[in-house]
Design goal:
The chain is an alpha+beta fold and 237 residues long. It has one domain. It is built from 8 helices and 7 strands; from the N terminus they run αααββαββαβββααα. Strands 1-2-3-4-6-5-7 form a 7-stranded mixed β-sheet. A hairpin with a 5-residue loop joins strand 5 and strand 6. The N terminus is likely disordered. This is Secreted protein. It comes from Streptomyces olivaceoviridis (Streptomyces corchorusii).
């Protein structure tokens, strides 16, 4: 099992955990539910993620993984209100990794919450996030994952600058990311990534490109998850 704060390069070829078994579901939704314990960590959270065109003005980004959290439950992983909002879909397992940009100026935690929900429940939660604009509420920001002796050592709740939360409807997964400065500075007015990346945005997170960090990394990790689900579904039983 991965140890707390395992550094990226040392995790190559490791598994997120060795326990548990597949639920036998033959469809993509059921297959996705098992990925947290059946896929190597490097497939879900690669040591390096290329973000072609992901930066401000279409600039390229490269993110390097600096820490992987041990797979866990959700008891202390979210602020209380976000934990309450996510409660209807349940928490089967939470996977998290933290990345930094090429200059080690920014740090971003990306998470994959594997839920216990069926497609109807995931669709209902996605509709609630959309209709109530829950993904833009600062009291529903995900928490970062900090790891000692890394660029993210000082990445705590008060350092959160931009975030994004996506409730997937084709898999029992909630994908999210939260970004901040690597120097540990506090942020008085964090901003949703979707707002921070808009043309003309003048807040500190927007000007620094922290919205691009959160949104770009979350998008690419979610794409990898979907690709992994597709590959696993196509394998003969």
């Amino acid at each position: 099992m991965l140890g707390l704060g395992l550094i990226g390069g040392a995790a190559t070829g490791s598994w997120l955990t060795g326990d548990g078994g597949a639920d036998g579901a033959g469809n993509a939704f059921g297959t996705a539910r098992t990925l947290w314990h059946s896929v190597p960590v490097d497939e879900l959270f690669p040591p390096t993620v290329q973000g072609t065109g992901a930066g401000p003005g279409g600039a390229d980004r490269t993110w390097t993984r600096i820490a992987v959290a041990r797979d866990s439950g959700c008891a202390h992983a979210f602020d209380p209100l976000l934990h309450k909002v996510l409660a209807p879909v349940g928490c089967q397992r939470l996977l998290r990794a933290t990345y930094t940009d090429a200059t080690q100026t920014y740090v971003t935690t990306v998470g994959l919450l594997f839920t216990k929900a069926d497609p109807a429940a995931m669709s209902a939660l996605a509709a609630r996030f959309r209709d109530e604009h829950l993904d833009s509420r600062a009291d529903l920001m995900p928490r970062p994952y900090a790891a000692a002796s890394t660029a993210a050592a000082g990445f705590g709740d008060r350092q959160r600058a931009a975030w994004t939360v996506a409730v997937l409807t084709d898999a029992p997964v909630v994908a999210y990311a939260v970004s901040g400065w690597a120097d540990g500075r506090t942020v008085d007015a964090p901003q949703p990534a979707a707002d921070a990346v808009r043309s003309g945005a003048t807040t500190a997170p927007a000007q620094a490109g922290l919205g691009n960090e959160a949104q770009g990394l979350a998008d690419r990790i979610a794409r990898r998850l979907r690709k992994t689900v597709g590959t696993a579904t196509e394998k003969p039983s």
